[in-house]
Amino acid sequence: MNPEFSGLGITYEGHPTRLKWHRLRRSFRDPLFSAAVMAEGFRLGASTELDLRVRADGGFVVLHDDILEGETDGRGLIREAFPDDIRGLRLLEGGHPPILSEDLALMLETAHPDALLQFDMKDTLAVIGSRGLDHLADYFSGAGSSIIVSGTDLDLILAVKEKLPDLRRGIDPTDKLADIHAAEGWSAVERELSADLRGPTEADTVYLYWPMLLDAESAGLDMIGLCHDAGKLVDAWTFNLQNPDAGFTTAEARDFAALMALKPDQITTDEPIATERAWAAIAG
């Protein structure tokens, strides 16, 4: 890794934008959900993201899919697997063991004060249940600004607010808004997003698909501005370069500059260092 670039963030006209390490990656060369990369992010004070799936005992494991064979050498539903079953598995990409929520709690104790870890919850409240919420409270209560819990299930985020009020919260209404746009247009999207921003989750951050943000802007709707007016931060996901070593293509440079002009607070990417380097090359 080039020591000149850390992959922590970039700026546009004085507005800072964090670069979030998607799936605990600084590069596609990094293995998926690596504890070593997470530890480096904690050391530097990076913004990082991981996916959580609930286990049979109410704890969690860092995986995206709902079945073990999707990402590990195990088999079966994750929500039916116990910790001892999971600890003996290996990820198909990288060969390292899956990270359990208990491991996360221990590693968080070493994190830089600026570090932010996103728990992207892939299960609904109905699947996680009270045991899962109790587990989060047992292991992460008091973590405060070091953790942001996000998801598409607003009932889950509301339950997290009630159970762990000190944790930051995020919502991702992208899929819902895409359906609304297809059926009713951008005015309906603006109404629905405004309602979510006023909603009871009291989210800190709104996660939105970056092409949607540009499409909305072309139609006269500044979704990021709408969120900022409501006091919310915006994460634009997930921008990845076609060829990280070569920097932006002409089209990527155009899109990324347009995205930065909207002043997102964070951009999700699997290539934060390459993205920072590419931006430096075109930003001057």
Could you walk me through the main structural features you see in this protein, from its secondary elements to its overall organization?
With 284 residues, the chain is of the alpha/beta class. The chain has a single domain, classed as TIM Barrel, CATH 3.20.20.190. The protein is built from eleven helices and ten strands. It has helices spanning 35-44, 83-87, 101-108, 125-140, 154-163, 174-184, 186-197, 210-218, 223-229, 250-261, 272-283; strands at residues 9-12, 15-21, 47-54, 60-62, 116-121, 147-151, 168-171, 205-209, 233-237, 266-269. An eight-stranded parallel beta barrel has the order 2-3-5-6-7-8-9-10, surrounded by six helices. α10 (250-261) links the parallel β9 (233-237) and β10. α4 runs parallel beside α5 and α6 (174-184) runs antiparallel to α7. The chain starts with 8 loop residues before the first strand and ends with a helix. 42% of the residues are buried. The mean pLDDT is 96.
CATH class category: Alpha Beta
Largest sheet: 8 strands, parallel, barrel
Q: How many alpha or pi helices?
A: 11
The proportion of strand residues reads: 15-25%
What is the mean predicted local confidence, pLDDT? 96
- Span of the ends, CA to CA: 21 Å
Shape: globular
What CATH architecture label applies?
Alpha-Beta Barrel
How many independent structural domains? 1
Low-pLDDT runs of 5+ residues are none
What is the spatial order of strands in the main beta sheet? 2-3-5-6-7-8-9-10
Structural class: alpha/beta
Q: What is the chain-wise order of helices and strands? A: EEHEEHHEHEHEHHEHHEHEH
Which topology does CATH recognise? TIM Barrel
Record field, number of beta strands: 10
Q: Rg from C-alpha positions?
A: 19 Å
State the share of residues found in helices, binned by percent: 25-40%
